[in-house]
Amino acid sequence: MNINAVVTSKNALRSHGDHGVSSSRHLITAAAISITWMVVLCATFNPKWETNDDVAMSMVAHGYGIADYGSAHLFFSNVLWGVIVRSLPSINGILGYSVATMLSLTLAGAAIVYFLLRLAIRPIFTVLVLIVVFMRPTLFPQFTETAGLLAVGGVLGLLSYQRRGSVFDLVAACCLAFLAYLIRDLELALVAAVGLPLLPWRKLIALRSARLAAVGLAICLGGATVANVRAYSSPEWQTFRQQNFARAPLTDFDATKFILERPELMQRHGLSPNDVRLVSNWFFVDPRLSNPDLLRSLLSEIPPQAVIERNFASSLTAFSLPLGPNLLTLTLTGLALLIILLRPSLLAAWLICFAFMLGFALAGRSPPVRVCFPLFALLTTAAVTMQFRLPQWRRLLLAATLLVGSLFNAWHLIDEAAASDRTIALARHPEFVSPRSTFVWGDALPFESVFPVFTREYDVRSTRIYGFGVLTLAPFSVAVADEAANRGFLAQLQSNAGIPLIAKPAELALLSVYCMENFATPLQTSIATQAELWTVVNASCTSPADE
Asked: What's the sign of the alpha-carbon dihedral 158, 160, 165, 166?
């Protein structure tokens, strides 16, 4: 037997064994770091949802608040994610939606740390990345950010697979991408697009295992898409989706200003300026105003060229977003790393990111922080993986940048989290919980503080909210159930008893004009409950003679 062949075989076996031990060690280390991080933050502070979208989806999943009954139709996420959320048991009374979110964030953190370790990044650097990237999403979770961070883990997984050749890393990357798709499909697409220049696509395509994984992932994504389409194919959901698509330009993309500038257009459709402002402020309870055909007809008469020109003129304001408080640390850290590294692929990824932000602005909407945060997280994290073959002084500069960024982020967010805890304490008002529907207009109620991440199941069992928002006309909503039972908004508004309403002064002013225009009587209000952060008024549109 050839002695060289024997030696080579032994070396290969030893290398394979070392590879397996290294992978297991990295996995255990990453899990320990991410779990410890999550436990320490959640034990120190009371996490609060970043936006009321997650509050709404928790309500839908578990059948309280704005939802008349529990449903897997979370609308913003895939129905399969809704099934997963509803199947999770509550832990110490904490609702399944919150459990699923925090577990997903822990998984995303562990995945990013694991892949950084696999890419030969020192553990101390992974901890600094965790502080810079994950401190805000852990203290202020948001489902779009959660999906984006899972997608970031998927991109790093592909980088690790290309360098290490580990099938486990490849499968893990695909699983992360699939989970990100279930939570927020469009965010996965954005992260993947920004990550295009960062990945060695030619090498990946040349690998048979990568091609098989891509086919498998495509099949899973297709199956989830089919399941979601079927779940929303019923007539009541089709009606809701038509109304939702029709209202979006007014509520989300600032098309209201183009309609208000055309009095003849409103007059021709029998609308007043107040009617248009009401719809743009989530007032869908009047079927005449929320009619999808009416809204589409209004929008069809606005010249597209006028919209593009106006939005382009104001598009530069979108580039101030990265310097806002929620993105400042990521932006400055990422840009500093870009300057230190001077890598064309990283610069190309930054340009794609800014192109997306410009696209949002041209559509008439400032790019949301929740959409941009994972993109900047990817740019910052990917930069950390590019420190190979750098001179020692540049490596030290990179380390100093990460250290300064993590310290600044921690200092800023500790103050913000402490202030948030105080707000949550003020918002825990037992008078709000009532089996009778409370009418809440938009964000007049601070949902994120009233129903924080660790809201207990027994605290919300009797909460019933007729909400003015995206899901007002969804089939599972309290609004739809109350309207069907003749306890709707307009019916009770015109009764002597009136309605318990939480609304901002501007919204009450719009409602007062609506009462005058439609019922020839002013809005009557009196304070029913005064809390620290909101006021419940009793509102009615009845004349004194009717009382």
From this structure: negative
